[in-house]
Amino acid sequence: MPRPKKARPIDASSEAVVLPPRRSRRIAGRPDATFDDIGVDVIAIIYGFLGPFDIMRSRLCKKLRKAAATTTVRPTNFTVNSVIKYNAMRAMATALPNLQQIEIGGLNGGHKYSDGDDPHEQENENDTPHAIDILSRFRNLRLLSLYIAPLNGRYPLLFQFPLLQKLDIYYCGNLKFDLEILAGLPVLEELYCNGNRSLTGNINSLRVLNDTLAKVTIRDCFEVQGNFMDLADFPRLKNVDLIETDVSGDIRDVGERDFLALESIILPKGVYGGIGYEFQRISDVPGIISTLYPIYKQRPILLKNSCAELSRGSPDWYHGVVRYDTPPFGIVFVAAGSRVGYQWETLHLFAACEVIWLDPEPDRESIDYEKYIEELKEIEQHGYFYHGFQQPPTEEEYHHFWAERRG
């Protein structure tokens, strides 16, 4: 059996590569510079191109840790949805205090956030609480989202971020707050509140954000009140959605100088001209349409999402044969080119009567005619389920219609 060869010793004359000590390594383009010559501010700029977890993993020495603490971390989705992620947020509160975006979600089973002031009746008393006040250390937050977070009571600290631009609060039913508290977010541009039953206040409180707000969505928050016209003079306001709130008003009050930047608006049934606005008799509709028609012609965006409904307390109302739906008791505006009309439709299944046109058909030689024909085809492609009807059938006609369809 051959003996293994012994390793040959390396002498000074060999061509072995020997790295210089770490502190004397040179930097490309700067033969006279070392790592120690790079300023903390330069490292912070480099860190600004990385995500929070990449920065956390690279904090290998005191200098890098100092640079990370001064870095303005670019907006990157960081979701706290477990105890592990919560502990990561605790570490970042010291290591990356300039984090710009955080989403606070649920925690693992058996865990919750510590109760705030005036909490609802305790439901999970045995769950392990975790302090949420560490969130207040991120003073440079631009985007904050609270999504189905186990928060209970009032937490003023959640509304004290001077640089916050976007606030999302979704289905945090036990989180108590009033719209007045948004004064602690002086540069807020986008507000989304959906399904927060403990939200209270008057939308007039949003006037402290008059110069900054561009988007407002407050949905399924029945304790929110006020008149939507309190938002009419917000110069940057593009999108408004107040469905399922107690907000009231009258679309006919909108003047030429109101909602100048508006791109979409969805108003609740408490507003004349809003979604779900109720009328008492089918015979009332021509009068309602004649009132709203000039507004639609001048500024269709105000009524694009409007749908009025026949009240269930109306003597004209009757039960349908289709589960979860009604006969065609809703009215909406429709448009083909410059031609405007309206039609009756069901509330959920979108089975409609034929269009009642309010404008004559455009002249065949007009520049609008081609667009009119194209959009008319789109309307007719959906078909008229209640063919031959331009308004809801009587109860007798309705049941006869369905009897024929079912053979």
Give a verbal description of the structure:
Among the domains are: 41-74, no CATH class; 292-407, no CATH class. It is 18% helix and 18% strand. The chain has helices at 40-47, 52-57, 62-70, 83-95, 285-298, 369-381, 395-405, and strands spanning 79-80, 101-104, 111-113, 128-130, 143-147, 153-154, 166-170, 175-178, 190-194, 199-202, 215-219, 224-225, 239-241, 249-250, 264-266, 271-272, 278-279, 308-310, 330-336, 339-345, 356-357. The strands form 5 sheets. It has an 8-stranded parallel beta sheet with strand order 1-2-5-7-9-11-13-15. It has a 5-stranded mixed beta sheet with strand order 17-18-19-20-21. A 4-stranded parallel beta sheet has the order 6-8-10-12, with no helix packed on it. A hairpin with a 2-residue loop joins strand 19 and strand 20 (339-345). The longest helix has 14 residues, at 285-298.
Structure annotation, total helices: 7
Average pLDDT number: 89
Helix content: 10-25%
The largest sheet has its strands arranged as 1-2-5-7-9-11-13-15
Largest sheet geometry? 8 strands, parallel
> How far is the first residue's CA from the last residue's CA?
97 Å
In total, the number of strands is: 21
Q: Helix/strand/pairing class, anyone?
A: alpha/beta
The coarse overall form would be elongated
Q: State the low-pLDDT regions, or none.
A: 9-20
- Radius of gyration based on Cα positions: 31 Å
Task: Estimate what percentage of residues fall within beta strands.
Answer: 15-25%
Order of helices and strands: HHHEHEEEEEEEEEEEEEEEEHEEEEHH
Record the SSE blueprint.
Blueprint: H1 40-47, H2 52-57, H3 62-70, E1 79-80, H4 83-95, E2 101-104, E3 111-113, E4 128-130, E5 143-147, E6 153-154, E7 166-170, E8 175-178, E9 190-194, E10 199-202, E11 215-219, E12 224-225, E13 239-241, E14 249-250, E15 264-266, E16 271-272, E17 278-279, H5 285-298, E18 308-310, E19 330-336, E20 339-345, E21 356-357, H6 369-381, H7 395-405
Parallel strand pairs: 1-2, 2-5, 3-4, 5-7, 6-8, 7-9, 8-10, 9-11, 10-12, 11-13, 13-15, 14-16, 17-18
Antiparallel strand pairs: 18-19, 19-20, 20-21
